[in-house]
Specification:
Elements (H helix, E strand, L loop, with lengths): L10 H9 L12 E6 L10 E9 L4 E5 L2 E2 L1 E6 L5 E8 L4 E8 L3 E8 L4 E9 L3
Antiparallel strand pairs: 1-2, 1-9, 2-3, 3-4, 5-6, 6-7, 7-8, 8-9
Length: 128
């Protein structure tokens, strides 16, 4: 009876597997184009705005929200879901936005101190 020879993968391949190279981090699941439902109340007409995440790491992201560049972005994945916060502005108003990446969708709030409102929103990933 002949025993087949074992093939041992190259060392570089084993090191890549051990380091997680090529594996997507939870924060990287944010990357892509999203459509945000930003209507002011459940009864209001659907109001879609874009949220585009160009890059994300375990601690920050590069993105635009409603056409404005995201600043001061912070991510936290320590509680089992990716949570994020960032600041945008449209000239006279600064918007503080927070959100959570659920299973394929986003949920968040945007607070505009100067305008005195807090907006709840949800978002779905755009089709490729």
């Amino acid at each position: 009876m002949r025993i087949p020879a074992l093939r041992i993968p190259p060392l570089a391949f084993l090191l890549a597997l051990a380091s997680g190279a090529g594996a997507q981090t939870p924060a990287e699941a944010l990357v892509g184009a999203w459509t945000v439902d930003l209507r002011p109340s459940p009864e209001a007409a659907y109001y879609a705005v874009p949220f585009v995440v160009e890059a994300a790491t375990d601690s920050t992201m590069e993105a635009t929200f409603y056409g404005s560049p995201v600043r001061e972005a912070v991510l936290n994945g320590a509680w089992g879901e990716v949570r994020f916060a960032f600041v945008t502005s449209d000239g006279g108003t600064t918007y503080h936005t927070t959100g959570i990446l659920h299973d394929g969708w986003l949920e968040g709030t945007t607070h505009a101190i100067e305008r005195g409102f807090l907006s709840y929103w949800t978002a779905t990933r755009d089709a490729d």
